[in-house]
Amino acid sequence: MNRAVLQRITRSEVPTSIISVGRRGRDFAVRQGWDLRAEFTNLGDAPGLNETLPITRVAMDDYLSGYVDEVWVAYSEFVNAAVQRPRFEKLIPVEPAEITPEWNVEYLYEPSADEVLEALLPRYVEMVVLHAVLENLASEQSARMVAMRNASDAAKDMITGLTLTYNKTRQETITKELLDIVGGVAALEG
After folding, report:
1. Whole-number Å distance between alpha carbons of 57 and 62
2. pTM: predicted TM-score of the whole model, two decimal places
3. Least confident interval from 73-82, 148-157, 171-180
């Protein structure tokens, strides 16, 4: 994930600020010398909305104050146990969906559409950030599971190889001792 973010930032022509979530992301941003706006570590094994709200608040405050023009979220998307992909989503400003003409219907909003949007957009941003954190956590756990399975398989292969070597060595030692005994008996009889 860090490599994908590095490529994205180096291709970007505008200055970038980072809000890091997690120790590895923070350490990577510091090593690269990036502008680290905020850092959030120790979210726990099962972060909820309360743990991710401060992340959202920093991003929204920076956008509303004019400090940044856009806010993007980068995370590892969990595809399956073996595959996790880097994903980048534009968080703010929210882009309206393309609606085909047959689905374009005028609705009557109470309160006004602006008031509804004003209430829903912050909740939407909060959910996208929570989703990104949870996807990243699932990807991390999956990668750990795959690494542990690979380590266990390698250990089993090593045990099998060492057991085979031990048994061959033991068999050679027994054969050598038997030959010494047979040779000694033949010398006494001869």
Report:
1. 8
2. 0.74
3. 73-82
Distance CA 30, CA 33 (A): 5
Within 8 A by CB and 6+ apart from 77, the residues are 84, 85, 86, 87, 135, 139
Tokens of 164: 């085979």
For residue 27, the cross-strand partners are none
Inside any domain, residue 186: no
Say how many domains are in the chain.
1
Classify residue 6 by burial, with Cβ atoms within 10 Å: 0-12, 13-18, 19+: middle
In which band, very low, low, confident or very high, does the pLDDT at 57 lie, cut at 50, 70 and 90?
very high
Beta strands in the chain (DSSP E): 17-21, 35-40, 71-80, 83-92
Can you give the CATH number for the domain in which 110 is found? 3.40.1380.10
Q: Which residue has the higher pLDDT, 155 or 109?
A: 155
